[in-house]
Amino acid sequence: EIRPRDWSSDVCSSDLDVEFPCVVKRLFFHSGIGIATVKSRDEMKALLASGDWRGQSVTVQALVPGTDEYVTHCVCENGKILWHCTYAYDLPAPDAIRGQTSNVMPRAAAAAAQTLAQPESFLRPLAYNGPCNADYKLAANGDIVLFEINARLGGSLMLPENVEQLRQALTAILEAALRKS
Questions:
Q1: 3-state secondary structure of 175
Q2: Higher pLDDT among residues 116 and 10, named by residue
Q3: Rg (CA), the chain
Q4: Buried-exposed string 83-99: b where 16+ CB fall within 10 A, e elsewhere
Q5: What rounded mean pLDDT belongs to the chain?
Q6: Do 52 and 34 meet the contact criterion of CB atoms below 8 Å apart?
Q7: Could you give the CA distance from residue 76 to residue 82 in angstroms, rounded to a whole number?
Q8: Confidence (pTM)
Q9: CA dist., res. 31 & res. 128, Å (int)
Q10: What residue ranges in 27-67 does DSSP mark as E strands?
Q11: pLDDT tens digits for range 169-181
Q12: pLDDT (average), residues 48-63
């Protein structure tokens, strides 16, 4: 059994090696709720003691600077990407993160083969089947800096202007299921 580390009690200890600024994420959240950038240990302590954060398990990620953040939605069969579409989010500053209050809308973007190969390298050994989405930024060499992979259809596909891509994703899911039956 693999369990995520519960950082809530020790994330603010002075001996924990955390480089600031960093991103703090609640383990159980959705739609950008429970994600914040903190610039110091004192700011992290204050965040974790406040309202919706108090008592929550969190994880800490390096802040990856950049003004473009991407999400690639996929439908997979045995870890192979059968269908995909990508959206880019233009962030207002290099240290900004996409979250519930960011009001940043997606725009369609192209994903290079190199970009798709990286999440697929995680999914193939798992023989993953179904929808997923990967959130990331691109490094200067074109590699992705992956934030997370979610085993579900993502929120940008649910926007009214993206209904055609949602239809394509659902069609790919149904076609894959029919092949298995």
A1: helix
A2: 116
A3: 18
A4: bbbbbbbebeeeebbbb
A5: 86
A6: yes
A7: 5
A8: 0.83
A9: 23
A10: 35-38, 58-62
A11: 999 999 999 988 8
A12: 87
Give 50's DSSP letter: S
What number of H helices and E strands is found in the chain? 3, 8
Of 72, 35, 61, 47, the residue nearest 156 (C-alpha): 72
CA–CA separation, 89 and 47 (whole Å): 25
Mind listing the pLDDT tens digit for each residue in 84-111? Answer: 999 999 999 888 888 655 678 899 999 8
Say if residue 52's pLDDT is above 60.
yes
Q: What is the pLDDT of residues 28-51, one digit of tens each?
A: 776 667 888 999 989 998 998 888
Structure tokens at 4: 């995520």
Which tokens in the block code for residue 163? 């209904």
CA angle, 21 as apex, 16 and 26 as ends, to 5°?
Answer: 70
Count of residues for the chain?
181
Instruction: Give every strand in the sheet of 144-150, ordered side by side.
Output: 106-109, 80-90, 68-77, 130-138, 144-150
What is the b/e burial string over 146-172, where b = at least 16 CB atoms within 10 angstroms of the residue's CB? ebebeeebbbbbeeeebeebbebbeeb
From the list 109, 97, 35, the residue with the least C-alpha distance to 71 is 109
